[in-house]
Design brief:
The complex is a heterodimer of chains A (260) and B (276). Chain A contains 11 helices and 10 strands. Chain A has 260 residues and is an alpha/beta fold. The chains are: A alpha/beta (260), B mainly alpha (276). The complex binds adenosine-5'-triphosphate and magnesium ion.
Chain lengths: 260, 276
C-alpha cells in the first residue's frame, strides 16, 4: 500500500500528462427511501479542469460528491475514479483512492478537539507519509498563508469565526496536494473580498498541481472566475452542461435565474 | 361527568391500546436491527483492535481524559461511600458488641460490591455520556466522515482507543475509589471515639482475602468495556440532526448503567458458585 501512496502523493508526470477524463459518472441513481435524489445522472471530469456544479438547494449536489468518495453508496449506475469503479473497491483500495481525492465539506467538519495545526497535521501524517516533520510544518505554514490565516495556527476551531473555519478546512483539504478536488461550497458565508481570494486560490491550485476539481457553488462570481465547464443539476439529472459562455447566453429559465 | 365524555375517554383508551399493540411490530423490528447493528459494531471493534496500526497517541490521550479527568468525581464518591457506610453500620455493630469488626466489614463490602458498582455507575454517567456526546457531535458535524476521507479508519482511531482506555482506566479508578473509601471509613470511625490509622487498616484488611479481591477487580474490566462500547456505539450511530447528540448521550448513560447492574448480578452469581 505504501508504494501506491507515494505514487499518489508525488503524482508522476506521465499520469498527469494525458488529457483524458479522470472521472466518469454513468447513469448514477441514489434514493433515500422514497426520496429520489439522483436518477440517471451522467457526467465526466477531465484532467486538469474545473467543473462547476450548480443546482437548487436539496438537488443532490452534496450527495453526488459523497457518492464519489464512497461516503454514500449508490443504488445503480457507475462512478469510475482514475479507472477504478468506486462501488467495487474494498476498504483498502478505497483508502488508496481517497488519498488522491481531496474533499471539502460543506459544513467544514473541522475536528473540534484539535488545534488548527493538528487539524492540518491529521491528513498530512496519514496521506503524505513521504514528508518529514519539517516539511510538513512548512507545508502547513504555506497553506495557512494561502488562505490568509497564518496566525490562527495554534487556535482551536471554536475560537474561529464561521468564515475562518471554512478557510481552515479548505487549507486542510489542499494541504495534501490531491489529484482530484471536490469543493462543496468553498465560498459560502464569506465576504466578497475573501470569496474572491478563495476563487483565486482554487485557480492557483489548478495551475500549480494540474488538479482536476468539481466545485459546487451558489456563488456565480466564483463560478465565472474558476469554471472551465459548468454543469447544472436538476431533478437528479444533468439539466445543462457547457462552457461559462454558453451558460451566460442561455435562455433556459432555470439557468437564467442563476445568472442574473 | 356526562356519559359522552366518559365514552370518549374510553374510546381514547382503546385506540391508545390498539396503537400500543401495533407499535410492538415495528418496535420489535427496530430492536432486531439495533441488535444486528450492535453485533456488527462489536465485530468491527474486535477486528480493528487487533489490526497492525494502533493509534497509540490517541489511546494515551483517552486514558488521560477518562482516568485523570474522572479523579475528582471518583475521589469524592469513594470517600463519602466509606464514610457513610461506616456511620450507618456502626450502631448495629455496637448493639451486637462487634465494633471491632467495623473496619473489616466496611472494607469487604467496599471492595466486593460498593466500590466497583458505584464507580462504574458514576463513570457510566460521566464517561459514557461524554463519549456519546463527543462521537455523536462528530457524526452530526461530519467529522467522522472527514476522517474517513482522510483514509483513516474512524473505528480504529476513535472507538478502539476509547474502549481500550475505558477497559484500562475503570479498574484503576475502582481500586483508587476503594482505597479512598477505606480512608473515608477511618474518618467516619473517628467521629465517635478515636482509632489509630494503622490499627484501623490492620483491622480493615484482615478479613479481605484473594476471593474478595480477584472477582471484584475482574468484573471492573467488563464494566469498563461496557461503558466504552455503549458510549461509542450510541455516539457513532447518532442520527443526522443536532438533537440526536443529546439522545446519544442520554441513551448511552441509561444503557451503560443498566448493563453494569446486569453484569454485576451475573458476576455475583458466578463468584458465588465458584466459592461454594
Ligand atoms: N444521509 C442522508 N439521509 C437521508 N436523506 C439525505 C441524506 N443526505 C441527503 N439527504 C437528502 O437528499 C437531498 C439532497 O441533499 P444534498 O445535501 O445533496 O443537497 P444539496 O444539493 O447539497 O443542497 P445545498 O445546496 O442546500 O447544500 C435532500 O433532500 C436531503 O434531505
Ligand atoms: Mg450541499
Amino acid at each position: 500500500m505504501s508504494e501506491e501512496t507515494t505514487t499518489a502523493a508525488t503524482s508522476t508526470p506521465d499520469t498527469k500528462a494525458k488529457n483524458g477524463p479522470v472521472m466518469l459518472i454513468k447513469d448514477l441513481s441514489k434514493a433515500f427511501g422514497e426520496l429520489k435524489v439522483l436518477s440517471g445522472f451522467s457526467a465526466e471530469l477531465m484532467q486538469g479542469e474545473n467543473l462547476v456544479v450548480l443546482g437548487k438547494s436539496g438537488s443532490g449536489k452534496s450527495v453526488l460528491i459523497k457518492c464519489i468518495v464512497g461516503l454514500l453508496s449508490y443504488d445503480s449506475g457507475s462512478i469510475t475514479v482514475m479507472g477504478d469503479e468506486v462501488s467495487a473497491l474494498n476498504r483498502k483500495e478505497l483508502n488508496v483512492m481517497r488519498q488522491k481525492v481531496g474533499f471539502l465539506f460543506q459544513s467544514g467538519a473541522l475536528y473540534d478537539s484539535m488545534t488548527v495545526r493538528e487539524n492540518l497535521m491529521f491528513p498530512l501524517t496519514r496521506i503524505r507519509k513521504d514528508l518529514c516533520a519539517d516539511e510538513m510544518e512548512a507545508k502547513i505554514k504555506e497553506v495557512l498563508e494561502n488562505v490568509g490565516l497564518a496566525d490562527a495556527i495554534d487556535k482551536m476551531p471554536s475560537e474561529l469565526s464561521g468564515g475562518m473555519r471554512k478557510r481552515i478546512s479548505l487549507a486542510r483539504t489542499i494541504v495534501v496536494d490531491p489529484d482530484i478536488m471536490l469543493y462543496d461550497e468553498p465560498t459560502t458565508g464569506l465576504d466578497p473580498v475573501t470569496s474572491d481570494e478563495i476563487s483565486s486560490l482554487i485557480l492557483d491550485v489548478q495551475k500549480k498541481y494540474r488538479t482536476s476539481s468539481i466545485i459546487i457553488t451558489h456563488d456565480i462570481k466564483c463560478a465565472r472566475k474558476v469554471a472551465d465547464r459548468i454543469l447544472m443539476i436538476n431533478d437528479g439529472k444533468v439539466h445543462l452542461m457547457g462552457t461559462p459562455k454558453e451558460f451566460e447566453e442561455s435562455d433556459d429559465e432555470l439557468v437564467a435565474s442563476f445568472f442574473n | 361527568m356526562s356519559t359522552t365524555t366518559i365514552k370518549a375517554k374510553f374510546e381514547d383508551r382503546i385506540t391508545g391500546l390498539g396503537e400500543a399493540v401495533l407499535s410492538i411490530g415495528p418496535g420489535f423490528k427496530g430492536f432486531v436491527t439495533d441488535f444486528a447493528d450492535a453485533f456488527l459494531f462489536l465485530v468491527l471493534i474486535g477486528r480493528e483492535t487487533f489490526s497492525r496500526h494502533f493509534e497509540f497517541r490517541e489511546f494515551l490521550n483517552q486514558c488521560f481524559q477518562i482516568g485523570y479527568r474522572s479523579l475528582p468525581l471518583v475521589s469524592i464518591t469513594g470517600a463519602i461511600m466509606g464514610l457513610v457506610l461506616t456511620i450507618q453500620s456502626r450502631p448495629v455493630l455496637v448493639d451486637f458488641g462487634a465494633e471491632t469488626m467495623l473496619p473489616g466489614m466496611v472494607a469487604v463490602s467496599l471492595i466486593r460490591e460498593m466500590g466497583p458498582v458505584i464507580t462504574a455507575l458514576i463513570c457510566a454517567g460521566k464517561i459514557g455520556s461524554g463519549m456519546g456526546a463527543e462521537l455523536g457531535s462528530m457524526r452530526v458535524t461530519e467529522q467522522i466522515d472527514a476522517m474517513e476521507v482522510s483514509s483513516t479508519n474512524p473505528v480504529r482511531f476513535l472507538v478502539v482507543t476509547r474502549v481500550l482506555a475505558a477497559i484500562l482506566m475503570i479498574p484503576l479508578l475502582t481500586v483508587y475509589a476503594d482505597a479512598l473509601g477505606i480512608v473515608g471509613s477511618w474518618a467516619g470511625a473517628n467521629i465517635k471515639g478515636e482509632v489509630g490509622f494503622t490499627l484501623f487498616m490492620a483491622q480493615a484488611f484482615k478479613p479481605v482475602d484473594f476471593m474478595d479481591l480477584m472477582p471484584a477487580i475482574l468484573k471492573t474490566f467488563f464494566f469498563g468495556a461496557v461503558i466504552g462500547i455503549v458510549g461509542c456505539y450510541k455516539g457513532y450511530h447518532a442520527g443526522r440532526g443536532t438533537e440526536s447528540v443529546g439522545k446519544a448521550a442520554n441513551s448511552a448513560v441509561v444503557l451503560a448503567s443498566l448493563l453494569v447492574i446486569i453484569i454485576d448480578m451475573i458476576a455475583v452469581q458466578i463468584t458465588d458458585m465458584l466459592s461454594s
